[in-house]
């Protein structure tokens, strides 16, 4: 059966979900246009320049079991851009650093008594054996982790991480969310038990740009600085009002945060439907990126299990991707999830640095301000959906309230959490389904 190539599709959002959907549609000869409101492609995977090299605004890596992103890279012929390396993972607790990269490191984690270390190791194994995630939906992560590992393991290992990540809503987080994190990390290890992660040379934006180029080579369009202000159903079509003009298409795929989608359709959608789109709570993110002339440590990913420290982690990117990629500069990310009304979210780059530096110097006493060659602040308002108990009941269906409106956002990825691998999976999936629907009858 031939494809109706006269059908037109608008994809709203130029992150990996939108690009993957447009890739599948354009591959089938369907006229597709991606509208990205920002001047750069990639969404949360966008980048900035460091000494002539692109660097992710928000830290990124892939796990070796992220098969969907690896398959896409293979299709685009970019396997030579992928580097896979073992990484050093650690924990900062009670003013001390503890390595936690291998099972042996876990056995030497002295803040926990010996038998609690065993419980902690067994907890990860027991979590990975869970096959039916639905049985965890009526439990919070707190309840489930205490049940698996006991109160002391929870208090020392998991509670600081949950509170560091989710702040005031930490007690609301579903066991399903945490189960998926444990399962994912446990499946990305080498033969010796060490964690192995993957990175794309030139930053994740290089993959997004390659995908955008392929879409355009296949006849699609990618328009930047194109912010959609409204979506209106008109007869059997959709009218898009945006900063670059007015467009009429047959189908729309919206990949933006659900409350933004609600704003686009609020002139005609029912109050109940709009409320359902605004029901899921999102946290924002502030990410301070430092360019240093010294390394802080040999740890790539340092979880901060200290409730007085305002950042959930210290990620030294150049302990994963070599400093030579950035003219010898050492790159450090400090990440904080928070409410968008938080004072920290309102600060500029200099203010965030002034705020963060004393905490960093407490952890790394040798650190001097003149080590900092440059610093940057990046913010994302819709960074992390809050995955509550019975989250599956909150997710709106892919099909919108009127034919031709399709929703595919990171808040709808479940039981997995948001991430590049799943964004690509969901984007390609909806692109394929829509291509089937558009087939000529």
Secondary-structure blueprint:
Elements: E1 8-12, H1 16-27, E2 31-35, E3 47-50, E4 53-56, E5 62-63, H2 67-75, E6 82-86, E7 89-93, E8 96-99, H3 103-107, H4 114-128, H5 141-149, H6 151-166, H7 175-186, E9 196-200, H8 204-217, E10 221-223, E11 228-234, E12 237-242, E13 245-249, E14 251-254, H9 258-265, H10 271-279, E15 282-292, E16 301-304, E17 313-316, E18 330-338, H11 343-346, H12 349-363, E19 372-385, E20 405-407, H13 420-437
Parallel strand pairs: 1-2, 1-14, 2-10, 7-16, 14-20
Antiparallel strand pairs: 3-4, 5-9, 6-9, 7-8, 11-12, 12-13, 15-18, 15-19, 16-17, 17-18
**What name is given to the CATH topology of the largest domain?**
FAD/NAD(P)-binding domain
User: Uncertain regions: pLDDT < 50 for 5+ in a row?
Assistant: 187-192
Helix content: 25-40%
Total discrete domains:
3
Architecture per CATH nomenclature, i.e. the level-2 architecture of the largest domain: 3-Layer(bba) Sandwich
Please give a structural write-up.
By secondary structure, this protein is of the alpha/beta class. The chain folds into 3 domains: 164 residues, FAD/NAD(P)-binding domain; 112 residues, Guanine Nucleotide Dissociation Inhibitor, domain 1; 104 residues, Alpha-Beta Complex (Polyamine Oxidase, Chain A, domain 2), CATH 3.90.660.20. A 7-stranded mixed beta sheet has the order 8-7-16-17-18-15-19, with helices on both faces. A 5-stranded parallel beta sheet has the order 10-2-1-14-20, with helices on one face. A hairpin with a 2-residue loop joins β7 and β8. α1 packs parallel to α13, α2 packs across α13 and α5 runs antiparallel to α6. The chain is globular. It starts with 7 loop residues before the first strand and ends with a helix. About 1% of the residues have low confidence.
């Amino acid at each position: 059966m031939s494809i109706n190539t006269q059908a037109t599709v608008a994809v709203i959002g130029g992150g990996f979900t939108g690009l993957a959907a447009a890739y599948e549609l354009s591959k089938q000869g369907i006229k597709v246009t991606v509208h990205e409101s920002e001047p750069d492609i990639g969404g949360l995977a966008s980048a900035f320049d460091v000494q002539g090299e692109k660097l992710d605004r928000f830290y990124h890596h892939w796990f070796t079991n992220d098969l969907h992103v690896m398959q896409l890279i293979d299709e685009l012929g970019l396997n030579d851009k992928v580097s896979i390396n073992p990484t050093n993972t650690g924990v900062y607790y009670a003013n001390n650093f503890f390595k936690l990269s291998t099972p042996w490191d876990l056995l030497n984690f002295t803040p926990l008594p010996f038998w609690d270390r065993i419980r902690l190791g067994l907890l990860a194994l027991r979590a990975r054996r869970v096959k039916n995630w639905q049985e965890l939906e009526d439990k919070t992560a707190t309840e489930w982790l205490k049940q698996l590992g006991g109160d002391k393991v929870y208090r020392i290992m998991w509670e600081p991480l949950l509170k560091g990540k989710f702040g005031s809503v930490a007690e609301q987080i579903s066991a399903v969310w945490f189960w998926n994190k444990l399962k994912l990390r446990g499946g990305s290890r080498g033969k010796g038990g060490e964690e192995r992660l993957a990175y794309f040379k030139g930053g994740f934006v290089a993959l997004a740009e390659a995908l955008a180029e392929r879409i355009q080579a296949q006849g699609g369009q990618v328009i930047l600085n194109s912010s959609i202000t409204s979506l209106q159903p008109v007869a059997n079509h959709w009218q898009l009002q945006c900063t670059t003009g007015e467009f009429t298409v047959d189908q729309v795929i919206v990949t933006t945060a659900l409350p933004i989608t609600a704003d686009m359709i609020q002139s005609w959608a029912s109050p109940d439907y709009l409320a359902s789109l605004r029901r899921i709570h999102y946290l924002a993110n502030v990410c301070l990126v430092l360019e240093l002339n010294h390394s802080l440590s040999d740890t790539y990913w340092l979880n901060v299990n200290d409730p007085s420290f305002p950042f959930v982690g210290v990620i030294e990117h150049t302990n994963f991707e070599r400093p030579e990629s950035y003219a010898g500069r050492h790159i450090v990310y400090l990440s904080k999830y928070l409410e968008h009304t938080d004072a920290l979210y309102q600060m500029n780059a200099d203010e965030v640095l002034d705020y963060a530096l004393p905490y960093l110097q407490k952890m790394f006493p040798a650190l001097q301000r003149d080590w900092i060659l440059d610093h940057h602040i990046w913010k994302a308002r819709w960074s992390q959906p809050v995955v509550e108990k019975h989250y599956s009941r909150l997710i709106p269906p892919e099909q919108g309230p009127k034919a031709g409106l399709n929703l595919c956002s990171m808040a709808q990825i479940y039981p997995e959490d948001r991430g590049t691998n799943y964004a690509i999976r969901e984007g390609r999936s909806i692109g394929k389904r829509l291509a089937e629907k558009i087939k000529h009858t």
